[in-house]
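Bit of a strange request maybe. I'm writing a small parser for structure token strings and I need a real example to test against, not something I typed by hand. Could someone generate the tokens for this chain?
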Amino acid sequence: MGARETIRTAVRDVIPPPGLTRALAVQAMVYAIGSGLFHAGSAVFFTRALGLSAAQVGLGLSISAGVSLLGTVPLGGLTDRYGPQRVWVCGLVLDAALFASYPFVGSFAGFLAVVVALGTVDAATGVARQVYSINALPPAERVTGLAYQRSLLNVGFGLGAVISGVVLAVDTIAAYRGMVWFIATVVLVTALFVRRLPRLPHVARATEPMGRLAVLRDRPFLAVSLLSGLLTAHGVLYLTVLPLWIITHTDAPKTVIAGLVLLNTILIVLLQVRASRGADTASGAARASRRGGLLVAVFCLVLPISGATRGVLTIVVLVAAAMLLILAELIQSAGAWGLTATLPPNDQRGAYVGALRLGEQVQYLIAPAGLTALGVSTGGWGWYPTAAIFVLVGLAIVPVVAWAERTPRLGGTAPEQTMTLVP
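Reply from user aminoacidic:
Good idea to test on real output. This should exercise your parser:
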């Protein structure tokens, strides 16, 4: 019976319960098939099918990230004005059209236009998706619902990566064009799926609605955004810095990198829902964020050991470090969702969720170069100040969240309410 109960629990932690939670998780998986395919094959598509140089691709993606950063807060306000489902659907339709246009790009200017437009649209749809999930689910189920979405999101990423392997093996211009048209179709199917989700009733706005950038005056909330955003650098550590460290400072075979990526995907699918428990209040989410930051710090202390070991012991150390970072990712992600679900006011949730994502966007701008310089370029000693940074951020986020809880949100006059879905 013990084994059976363990299996049942494991299944419950992967397969969402029937209803809206499952519907939202399934749409996330479908969308991620296209995302996983594009992330795995985009670099080759840009250079082979569009004829761009690596420098042009990097510049275009950097400009797109900058535009997305600037647009996160004002675009989040669109969700408050027009409703999350409408913004979500319109954004997905635009996404599909932009992906479908990629094969017709004939210059760097055309590529830049498409990639910047995609970054802008993604900034709006990302906020709308989260706001819809939070508004549609009861407060006690919000963090768990987002955890189920992330779990199945990784299933979709895996499927997309498998498809990309086929495209890369064929390696023809026609195959790459077919790839982006397939992605456009997947995104359009997702839009139809989202369109069929239950409609949410209108949320009463504040008596005096805020301006589009007024949320930037909420200093406690912005402090939470910055600290929580910095903690999401575990993704950069795992996907960028760790592989570079393995290649340049250890004797481990390069195939270990692929194995660690696979390990990450599997454990997130299996454990994300379980790791989200206890993060459904602001204080619980803050504590989860703190634990995530401290685990990243421990990772930073363990990983350098692999630079001084040889053979099987190196792989053992790398796996141990990777497990610490995966656990940090699982717990910190749940903490971030808890903050997203509890701190923004009901009637200005779009603007505030956009502001909360601002910290993550800032991290994307500074973490890849900064963490690579500290962790890899220094030869190893830079891991120790990196660990200290994550300890400080992790310890700071609990009192800062408490400060934000004590401070009334700007324009947030409408009380929290349980939504009644409209079929």
